[in-house]
Design goal:
With 190 residues, this protein is α+β, with helices and mostly antiparallel strands. The protein has a domain of 125 residues: Tick-borne Encephalitis virus Glycoprotein, domain 1, CATH 2.60.98. Helices cover 16% and strands 34% of the residues. The strands form 2 sheets. Strands 1, 2, 7, 8 and 9 form a 5-stranded antiparallel β-sheet that branches. A 4-stranded antiparallel β-sheet has the order 3-4-5-6. The longest helix is centred in the C-terminal third of the chain and has 13 residues. It is globular.
Length: 190
């Protein structure tokens, strides 16, 4: 049975609505393993960053929101194909979200780095994970790595947050912009 995950319950005190300083991370520098797809980018609030990974997959990051690995031709794909099904906790904040929600502040969002994630690379694996998630949580956990064959890490390397507004509240704040580096490991072609 899936054990519930404790929320990181740090609550932010009321803060001034002025812009907060840049937060630059130097603790865990980005790495790129041989054979991985590695790239860096920048995203601004209200915008989308998109990068092609393969003939079938794109990496997408939105602020606010988070990141995902999705079909690059959604009109011809028969499933949703999202990494959300492969990254517990599923009904609480997880590492793929960058939205200052679930009692997370914007500062906590940009300080959480690197963020590790898995993703299914085809519709059959996505649907298999989704079905197991709905019907048999123990089998879901046992089959997670065999059905979510794609792996990745995202490092937030620089950012600016604000408390002049927020997607959830001013207290939680918002990520105005961030720079990041991503490492993607795709399974070998079959």
């Amino acid at each position: 049975m899936i054990v519930g995950f404790a929320l990181l319950g740090t609550f932010a005190a009321a803060q001034s609505p002025k812009k907060m300083p840049r937060i630059k991370s130097a603790a865990n520098p980005p790495q790129c393993a041989q054979g991985s797809i590695c790239f860096s980018g920048e995203a601004r609030e209200g915008q989308e960053y998109r990068r092609n990974l393969s003939a079938d997959l794109d990496f997408v990051l939105r602020l606010p929101g988070g990141f995902d690995v999705v079909p690059n031709q959604p009109a011809t794909t028969t499933c949703k194909l999202s990494l959300s099904v492969a990254n517990p906790p599923l009904r609480a904040h997880n590492d793929t979200e960058i939205d200052a929600a679930y009692d997370w502040t914007a500062e906590q969002e940009v300080e959480t780095s690197p963020r590790e994630f898995r993703f299914p690379t085809n519709c059959a694996d996505y649907e298999g994970l989704y079905e197991l998630l709905q019907s048999d949580p123990e089998k879901y956990v046992a089959n997670l790595s065999s059905l979510a064959k794609g792996q990745g890490r995202l490092w937030i390397t620089d950012s600016r947050v604000t408390h002049s507004h927020g997607d959830i509240s001013r207290e939680n704040g918002a990520v105005e912009w961030m720079r990041f580096t991503v490492e993607i490991k795709l399974p070998p072609p079959q």
